[in-house]
Amino acid sequence: MKKKCHIYTRVSTAAQTEGYSLEAQQERLRQYAEYKNLEIACKYCDAGKSGKSILGRPAFMEMMDDIARGKDQISYVLVFKLSRFGRNAADVLKSIQTLLDYDVDLVCVEDSIDSSTQGGRLTLAILSAVAEIERENIRVQFMAGRMQKVMEGGWAGGPAPFGYRNEGG
Fold it and tell me: Where does the signal peptide begin and end (predicted)?
């Protein structure tokens, strides 16, 4: 009998520009499941959701609830990369511990990380902190880009200030 898995995919605006489209993630995870002879029991997807917090990701929360209820009796959760699972170290580590409490392992396919091994758990702990730092760097770069636009006399975006209106848009 095949072991079962859930697939979780996520993109945010920043992730889409990095080439991690939902379709590409799903296809890669499908291929991995087929290669490992796993049955995909359910797919969960958070489109356009930040990895900053699990609270803003309904599909992630549903998946974790389903695991806690024993739905499909899965053995694995497959994600494309750890950054797709989350970018907040505390959330990632807590979620991984919850998975392990229910005898479910996390596999980050592109990162070649499997929480069923000691080395995999150590790597997950380190990379979850790295993912959080990456999120902060993305935010800083975004804000720096907006500031540069203002310094060059351009419009940084957003609604027009009180008393002004946007022309042609």
Answer: none
